[in-house]
Amino acid sequence: xxxxxxxxxxxxxxxxxxxxxxxxxxxxxxxxxxxxxxxxxxxxxxxxxxxxxxxxxxxxxxxxxxxxxxxxxxxxxxxxxxxxxxxxxxxxxxxxxxxxxxxxxxxxxxxxxxxxxxxxxxxxxxxxxxxxxxxxxxxxxxxxxxxxxxxxxxxxxxxxxxxxxxxxxxxxxxxxxxxxxxxxxxxxxxxxxxxxxxxxxxxxxxxxxxxxxxxxxxxxxxxxxxxx
Length: 228
Known about the structure:
Helix content is 56%, strand content 11%. By secondary structure, the protein is an alpha/beta fold. It folds into two domains: 5-120, 3-Layer(aba) Sandwich (Rossmann fold), CATH 3.40.50.1390; 171-227, no CATH class. Strands 2-1-3-4 form a four-stranded parallel β-sheet.
């Protein structure tokens, strides 16, 4: 089927070398052209991301989605794996308010496309849950056999690895604090101004602590507020 109208194109290559050579982008551009299959169409704008598929912070994708909303054009991607199979990532596409098309899945467009994307999210969630369950079961079985888990196995993390881990932990804590802010603001509006009162309010609301065990204390609330 030939397409018409304007389209926003998003390409992704996983290495800087691919991005500079254009080899990966050329192949994706050709796939998009084949998908559009002639007709009276035009590419309004093209966006190319050069990074790892494991990352979710994609500024070029954000720009492409914004352009698609601004011009009220569909966003075309050469292959669904260009956007990874991440549950959070697919959910983000569904919430973007943009008609997303995949050149390798021509049926994914309009109401049918949105439905298929929702099913892809559901399958990805199921797969992630099953993998997690299998991993936990395997670790539990190994522990019962007396296998030593964790600890020092002769591999010492480098300073770079430790710094990366610390940065990830800090980012996670900051995100957690941001998520808690609306609840804390609501508690303050209810007159709970002290750290102890805020802690009691979080406990009453059934919100788990960062570690998921125990109850909120004034000290824990203070740490959260420091990150906001």
